[in-house]
Amino acid sequence: MVPAQTRFTPMLDYPRLISFRKVLVTLPHGRSIAARLSDGSRSVPPTALVLLSIFSVQFGAAIAKNLFDSLGPSGTVFVRIAFASIVLLAMVRPKLGGHDRNAYLVAGLFGLALALMNLSFYQAIDRIPLGVAVTLEFVGPLGVAVAGSRRVLDVLWVVLAAAGILLLAPLGAFGGMDLDPVGVAFALLAGCIWASYIFLSAYTGSAFPGGTGLVIALCVGTVVLAPVGIAGAGSALLDPKLLLAGFGVAMLSSAIPFSLEL
pTM of the prediction? Predict the structure, then answer.
């Protein structure tokens, strides 16, 4: 899922419960890969970056759904977030010290929201079509847009977005489409958590420079998802082919979209 960004970078934090050996990915002039990508992306229109990010996330979700038979929804999202944390850790090379407790607390809550949002969404698309789940999930950012509206034009765009959701959502046709009500509930829950995710990403982004907060958040998300992920996937987590596919999902649904927003 793509985080709705202000000028801030999504992030998460938690005391480093997992320790990864730092990979040396220094580019010329000693800058991280993420920093160079961020500089390069500034010449690209923001709208294009958002569209590319959305496409990457949804393409990754479509691939992830094919892993559910082997890893289960919880195992798939665990593999995705774990690989994403490793990739972003190497790219960003975060400096974790020098922040106050409130900053780490906010980042930790952001990591919790990230984990629960994606887990709920994957549980939803395991039960209902991907397009329907995405449509229902948008109630979250739509609610944030309503709360943040200050001008008549803002309200107009929110109304148009709401109309689009109503047109796409199978309202009054749950029986006809044979939609699983549990799947619908998970999609709506993911949307509600997405709303909190938007605010937490902004607060975390203001507390941590660059992508440091995001890396911390992904590490927190990995820890939170580990119990249900390992229990859901079991020995399938040792299958190299499934892990390679999970790495692809992590790149498409997490690493690439988040890097575009750095």
Answer: 0.76
